[in-house]
Amino acid sequence: MNKIVQFIKESHSELKKVIWPSREDVISSVKVVIVSTIIIAAVLGIIDVLLLLGVQVIFEG
Q1: What pTM did the predictor assign?
Q2: CA 23, CA 14: separation in Å to the nearest integer?
């Protein structure tokens, strides 16, 4: 039981040392992730359509 209490106390003291990002930093990072995800999805979608068209041309032609 003492080890659990010690672990909780040490964890709490370590969390006090953490430098948490500001709300603006988090919002900015989320925007970057969303935009980059949309761009990558669009690029992969275009590549998928082009490959599908290429395969159709090869096997139908």
Answers
A1: 0.68
A2: 21
